[in-house]
Amino acid sequence: MFKVDLNCDLGESYGRYTLSEQQEILKYVTSANIACGFHAGDPSVMRETVKLAIENNVKIGAHPGLPDLNGFGRREMKITPQEAYDMVVYQIGALQGFLSTCNETMQHVKPHGALYNMSAKDTKLAEAIAQAVYDVSPSLVLFGLAGSELTKAGEKIGLRTAHEVFADRTYQSDGTLTSRSQSDALITDEEQSVSQVVKMVTEGKVTSQQNTEVSLKADTVCIHGDGEHALAFAKYIKETLENNKIIVSSIIE
Question: What CA–CA distance (Å, rounded) separates 204 from 168?
Fold first, then answer.
């Protein structure tokens, strides 16, 4: 039997600006990555998202990003490894405060957006992020792009590391995600998205935009909660995975 976690980026509203039908999406995912205020989210949104995740028995993780609300954390910034370390520790701490008030534990940490993509390629940034997670708690799981510098850094330092794949993104022949600046970065066809996920989970492969087979490990699948049909897709992908005899379960049960 194959097993995979379904994770979703949540808590990405800010003030009066709201995103996603997160209360409903939480019925279909097993892990939630909660924004910690740098790229999105605010204290009230964090508190409410934590509450909703607990009510739905969804595991909770910190989703630290770059300090860029206007760019939603998707614009690269020139930062040092020390700055990356400090940002990650700070944001984990913010979410941990809310979890402590609920006697809830944090399952994982998953960097967001540009920080995620930068650490997938930059060894020094990846090592700084892995060190930050380890220093806060060695029991935390580090989520990173499958086969990236971030997952390598996590494994090297001794963290439990989850290799992440994406349902709605296309891949390059080197295993990286196609840049969002390109028109073919996103997969909008649900059948194509789900077929890609089933193949990644059961075969450990994805077909790149260059039409080559890329080997990867799929421990957790990201589905985005801010898409036009996010809720319907979340339900569809979970049902399809289970119909293919794939167990949908959090990393730490």
Answer: 17
| Angle at 237 (CA atoms; ends 231, 241), nearest 5 degrees | 155
Predicted confidence (pLDDT) per residue in 26-73, tens digit: 999 999 999 999 999 999 999 999 999 999 999 999 999 999 999 999
Contact 118, 92 (CB under 8 A): no
d(CA 115, CA 62): 13
Q: How many domains does the chain have?
A: 1
* 107 domain residue, yes or no: yes
Could you tell me if 24 and 2 are in contact, meaning their C-beta atoms sit under 8 angstroms apart? no
Q: What is the 3-state secondary structure (H, E, C) of 47-102?
A: HHHHHHHHHCCCEEEEECCCCCCCCCCCCCCCCCHHHHHHHHHHHHHHHHHHHHHC
Reported as a single tens digit per residue, the pLDDT across 142-197 is: 999 999 999 999 999 999 999 999 999 999 999 999 988 899 999 989 999 999 99
Indicate whether 184 belongs to any domain.
Answer: no
Domain assignment of residue 82, given as a range: 2-166+218-229
In a domain, 75, yes or no: yes
Distance CA 201, CA 50 (A): 28
3-state secondary structure of 28: coil
Q: Reduced to 3 states, what is the DSSP secondary structure of residue 129?
A: helix
| pTM to 2 decimal places | 0.95
Tell me whether residue 78 is in a domain: yes
CATH number, domain of 53, equals 3.20.20.370
